[in-house]
C-alpha cells in the first residue's frame, strides 16, 4: 500500500497505480483521446474510468452525428463496422403554433444547418463500439468506477483521481464492506465527464479557467425513444421544431429523428435561462407531444426509453481555458456544443484528438504535469473554435429578444459568418441561468394538463424507463451547502423551483405537522445536473454516487 498523495490524517490509505494518461469519462471525447494516444505510441499507458455500469450507460445525446471527428480518428470506420448506418436523407424545420405548423424552407437556412452527410445514431452504441476499438489497441477501460476526488500534487497540479470508493454509510462514514478505492495517477489527467462534471467544476474554479469568459449557459434536454407505426416511419428524416408550447415562457425547441427499425428519437430542449420559477420543463416536453403534428406521428406507437441530460449552450464566449497544470478539459466538460445545430459530439471527438496529440508531444519531450498550452491553442484556433465562433451570437440573441429575433438576426449572423465576418461582433450572455430565475411573486403559476398515459407520462413512470438505480444505503450524492436554504429562502422567494425543474422528480416539498420539509429522493436521479445549474441560490452540489449507479440507457 502506498500513502495517497491527497491523503490527510483522516483519509484512508489507498493503493495507487500510475499511467501516462488518466482519462475520466468513456464518452466520445475520452475514448477519442485514448484511441489517439495509442495510435501515436502503442507503449503509452492509458486508462479510462467510467462511472456508468458499462460504457454507454450514461450517454444521452440527440443524436445526429457530424462524422468529421470520427473521419479524422478512424478514417475506415465504415469498413470497421461502426454502428453508424442511418444517413440523414431529409431535413425539415417547423414553426409550431398551438394548433398547426409552418414549414420553414430549407433554402432560407444557413448552409451550416444542412445535415447532408450526417448520420442518425445512438451515441451510447457508438461509444460502446469506440471502447472496443480502444481496448483492441491496449487501452484499459474500467466501467463502474466513479471518480470522487482529484489527487492534487504537492506543486498544486492535478496528479490523478480517486476512483472506486464503495460502501459508505448514509452519513458518510465507512460501512462494514467499505472499499477506499484507488488512486489513478498520471503524467496528465483528462477530464471528459460531460456537462457540469464534478471534478471539472473543481479544476475550473481552482485554476480560474473561466476568467474573462462569459457565464456558461445550459439547456435541459429530455428524450424518449418510440417505436411507431411503420407506415409513418421515414428512415433518415430529421425534424426540428420551435415555438409552441414554450413560446414566451422559455427558449428551446424539439427534435424528431427517424432511425432504423421503425424507431424515432423524440427530444425536447428547454434553455435553463428562463425567468418563471413555476415553469416545468418536463411538463412542457409532455405537452409538446400532444401537438397535432407530433400526436399523429406517435399515435399507435409506444415509448420504450426515457432520459434527460443538461446541454452546454454558452458556446465560444463561455469556453474556459481548456488546459491546466496536469491536465485538460475535454468536450462538454468545457462546453463545445454548437447550439443551433444541436451538435457537440464531433467537437468532443476532435478535442480528444487534440489533447492526445498535445500530451504525446509533451511525454515524448520528457515533460509531465505542466499546462498543455498547445491543446488549448488547437481548440480555440482550429476546427472546434471555428465551428463555435460562427454561431456565437445565436444564443445571446435568443436570450435577449426571444425566438423571432433570434431566427431573423441569428440567421443573418450565421449567413454572414459563413462569409467570414459578423456585423454584431461577439455578444455577451449576461446572467447565469441560476441568476436569471426571478421571484415567484412576479409570475403566475402555470397549469399543466395531466398526462394521459398514452402520449404523455408522469415523471416517475418515465424514470422507470431509464433503468435508473442507486444503492439506497449510500450517502446522498446531491449535497446541500446549507440545508436551511430550500425552506427558509427558496420556498418563500422562488416557490422552491427544484420540485419543478428536475425531470426525474428527485426534489419534493412535503408538508409535515411542524412545517414544510425539503425531501431529496436521490434514487430517482438520472444525472442530468440541472439542479446544480438552475438552483437560484446555487446551494445544490451534484457529486458522483458510487460507481455503476444511475441510469442504464440501452441505446440513447
TrEMBL record:
The ETF-QO/FixX C-terminal domain covers 453-553
Q: Which reactions is this enzyme annotated as catalysing?
A: a ubiquinone + reduced [electron-transfer flavoprotein] = a ubiquinol + oxidized [electron-transfer flavoprotein] + H(+)
EC numbers listed for it are 1.5.5.1
Q: Which cofactor does it need?
A: [4Fe-4S] cluster; FAD
This protein's record includes keyword Nuclease = no
Co-factor remark? Binds 1 [4Fe-4S] cluster.
- Major enzyme class: oxidoreductase
Keywords tagged on the record: 4Fe-4S, Electron transport, FAD, Flavoprotein, Iron, Iron-sulfur, Metal-binding, Oxidoreductase, Transport, Ubiquinone
ETF-QO/FixC ubiquinone-binding domain location is 218-311
GO molecular function (one): metal ion binding
InterPro entries xrefs = ETF-QO, ETF-QO/FixC_UQ-bd, ETF-QO/FixX_C, FAD/NAD-bd_sf
Tell me, in a sentence or two, what this protein's role is: Accepts electrons from ETF and reduces ubiquinone.
What is the name attached to this protein's record?
Answer: Electron transfer flavoprotein-ubiquinone oxidoreductase
Which organism's genome codes for this protein? Answer: Limimaricola cinnabarinus
Amino acid at each position: 500500500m502506498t500513502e495517497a498523495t491527497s491523503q490527510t490524517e483522516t483519509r484512508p490509505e489507498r493503493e495507487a497505480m500510475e499511467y501516462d494518461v488518466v482519462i475520466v469519462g468513456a464518452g466520445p471525447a475520452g475514448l477519442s483521446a485514448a484511441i489517439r494516444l495509442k495510435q501515436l505510441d502503442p507503449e503509452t499507458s492509458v486508462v479510462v474510468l467510467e462511472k456508468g455500469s458499462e460504457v454507454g450507460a450514461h450517454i444521452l445525446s440527440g443524436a445526429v452525428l457530424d462524422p468529421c471527428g470520427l473521419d479524422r480518428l478512424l478514417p475506415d470506420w465504415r469498413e470497421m463496422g461502426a454502428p453508424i448506418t442511418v444517413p440523414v436523407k431529409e431535413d425539415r424545420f417547423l414553426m409550431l403554433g398551438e394548433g398547426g405548423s409552418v414549414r420553414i424552407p430549407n433554402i432560407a437556412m444557413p448552409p451550416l444547418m444542412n445535415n447532408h452527410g450526417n448520420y442518425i445514431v445512438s451515441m451510447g452504441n457508438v461509444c460502446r463500439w469506440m471502447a472496443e476499438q480502444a481496448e483492441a489497441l491496449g487501452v484499459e477501460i474500467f466501467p463502474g468506477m466513479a471518480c470522487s476526488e482529484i489527487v492534487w500534487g504537492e506543486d498544486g497540479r492535478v496528479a490523478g483521481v480517486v476512483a472506486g470508493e464503495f460502501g459508505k454509510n448514509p452519513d458518510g462514514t465507512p460501512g462494514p464492506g467499505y472499499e477506499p478505492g484507488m488512486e489513478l495517477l498520471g503524467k496528465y489527467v483528462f477530464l471528459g465527464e460531460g456537462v457540469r462534471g464534478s471534478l471539472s467544476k473543481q479544476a475550473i474554479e481552482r485554476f480560474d479557467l473561466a476568467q474573462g469568459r462569459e457565464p456558461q449557459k445550459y439547456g435541459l434536454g429530455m428524450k424518449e425513444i418510440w417505436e411507431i407505426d411503420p407506415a409513418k416511419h421515414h428512415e433518415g428524416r430529421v425534424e426540428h421544431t420551435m415555438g409552441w408550447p414554450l413560446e414566451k415562457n422559455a427558449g428551446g425547441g424539439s427534435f424528431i429523428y427517424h432511425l432504423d427499425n421503425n424507431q424515432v428519437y423524440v427530444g425536447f430542449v428547454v434553455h435553463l435561462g428562463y425567468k418563471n420559477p413555476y415553469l416545468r420543463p418536463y411538463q412542457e416536453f409532455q405537452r409538446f407531444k400532444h401537438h397535432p403534428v407530433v400526436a399523429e406521428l406517435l399515435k399507435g406507437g409506444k415509448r420504450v426509453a426515457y432520459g434527460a441530460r443538461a446541454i452546454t449552450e454558452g458556446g465560444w464566449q463561455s469556453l474556459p481555458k481548456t488546459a491546466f497544470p496536469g491536465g485538460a478539459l475535454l468536450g462538454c466538460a468545457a462546453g463545445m456544443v454548437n447550439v443551433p445545430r444541436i451538435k457537440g459530439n464531433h467537437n468532443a471527438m476532435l478535442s480528444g484528438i487534440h489533447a492526445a496529440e498535445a500530451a504525446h508531444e509533451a511525454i515524448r519531450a520528457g515533460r509531465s504535469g505542466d499546462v498543455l498550452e498547445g491543446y488549448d491553442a488547437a481548440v480555440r484556433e482550429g476546427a472546434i473554435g471555428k465551428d463555435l465562433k460562427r454561431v456565437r451570437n445565436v444564443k445571446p440573441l435568443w436570450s435577449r429578444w426571444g425566438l423571432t429575433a433570434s431566427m431573423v438576426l441569428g440567421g443573418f449572423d450565421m449567413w454572414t459568418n459563413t462569409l467570414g465576418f459578423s456585423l454584431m461582433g461577439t455578444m455577451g450572455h449576461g446572467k447565469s441561468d441560476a441568476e436569471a430565475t426571478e421571484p415567484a411573486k412576479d409570475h403566475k403559476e402555470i397549469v399543466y394538463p395531466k398526462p394521459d398515459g398514452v402520449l404523455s407520462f408522469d415523471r416517475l413512470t418515465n424514470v422507470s424507463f431509464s433503468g435508473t438505480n442507486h444503492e439506497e444505503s449510500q450517502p446522498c450524492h446531491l449535497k446541500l451547502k446549507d440545508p436551511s436554504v430550500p425552506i427558509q429562502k427558496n420556498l418563500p422567494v422562488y416557490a422552491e423551483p427544484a420540485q419543478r425543474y428536475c425531470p426525474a422528480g428527485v426534489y419534493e416539498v412535503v408538508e409535515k405537522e411542524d412545517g414544510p420539509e425539503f425531501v431529496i429522493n436521490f434514487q430517482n436521479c438520472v444525472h442530468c445536473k440541472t439542479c446544480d445549474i438552475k438552483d437560484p441560490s446555487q446551494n445544490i452540489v451534484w457529486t458522483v454516487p458510487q460507481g455503476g449507479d444511475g441510469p442504464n440507457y440501452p441505446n440513447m
